[in-house]
Input
Amino acid sequence: MDTDFISDRIAKLRNKKNISARDMSLSLGQSQSYINNIENKKALPSMQMFLYICEYLGVEPKDFFEESITDPSKLNEAVEAFKSLSPKQLDLLIALAKEMK
Output
């Protein structure tokens, strides 16, 4: 993994949410070109800004780096929904997910 991964991952996750780089930058309290500069590999976010970016995108920092998770915010949404299910319901969902592979 290299520094390009961070830039590319932010762009992919932002595009999945259909948010412009400008709107995201401004929502994070930065200049309108902030995210654009990161995505164009001209800058990297500080650790604090990285955490804000993850929060904004609805992504856990650990999931940000997991390339096999294509839509971390959807995965987090599903996990939250599953928390209230009974063990039997969870077993059924697990069986369904395995069948869909």
About this structure: Residues 73 and 86 are 23 Å apart (CA to CA).
